[in-house]
Amino acid sequence: MSDSPPSQISPEAAPESAATADRSAKTRQLLGMKGASSGETSIWKIRLQLMKPITWIPLIWGVVCGAASSGNYVWNLENFAIAAACMLMSGPLLTGYTQTLNDFYDRDIDAINEPYRPIPSGIISIPQVVTQILVLLAAGIGVAYALDLWAGHEFPIMTVLTLGGAFLAYIYSAPPLKLKQNGWLGNYALGASYIALPWWAGHALFGKLDATIMILTLFYSLAGLGIAIVNDFKSVEGDRQLGLKSLPVMFGISTAAWICVLMIDIFQAGIAGYLIAIHQNLYAVILLLLIIPQITFQDMYFLRNPLENDVKYQASAQPFLVLGMLVAALALGHAS
Questions:
Q1: Radius of gyration of the chain from its Cα atoms, rounded to whole angstroms
Q2: N or C: which end of the chain has fewer CB within 10 A?
Q3: What is the pTM of this model?
């Protein structure tokens, strides 16, 4: 048997591998994801990075769920355009406002945890950041008001939801309240912002927002609290140094990981139980089936090493959670 030469990377493959890694890092930077690179010089790409486009997706999906739960959405060009405007309001504008505001108030923490972020790295000035916050907020309010006019609302529910969400974003990030300093309050505020608020907006746009939908989506937001905890693991060192009481800091990595997954699973199962109670049995079974792969990925990735596998877990499991949201929304729309 002949000896095999040691494995080597060819000179041609090395630059290609480095270029691929560089493109991946730049993409992560632009989307506002963990593990990004620094060195971007385009002011518009820097502004987009501050808005964290990867975080817009749940808000856009929440609008879809709200439209579905209203039971009144009809597929035509006008409704599609109006729904798209609501998604623009909830995602790029208001989530962009929230993320930029959060980066503004988190610049000291980011200097420890993510020094490549635009503000701690110094590639954008504070006045430019403040201007971006105000422009995004004003644009979000303007779109909300236009949606109220289109829907003919006597009470400007879209504008009120926008102002309420903007205020919640402010007290989440800014002192003296800074809800994110408390792992329970901050993560629930985040979960409600990602599930309940856009759901309410989509439902109110095409139907009548009532107490049942509001309570159910706030209950569903407790699963969102679990999702929000996942994001705390990447910041645990900076949170500990600055005295922020995130759940991984308060309870330790292992216990916080269990709290996280139990919140995600139990409250989705609770929604399935409600669907059974209102005789939407098929939708309830589908929702329960969608919880199973989430539990599988929790065991495979997250519970074994939440610090290393948080992004991998989110990419694997969250599609099943968001599909479950739509299943629940369709069930509520059908029941109405």
A1: 21
A2: N
A3: 0.88
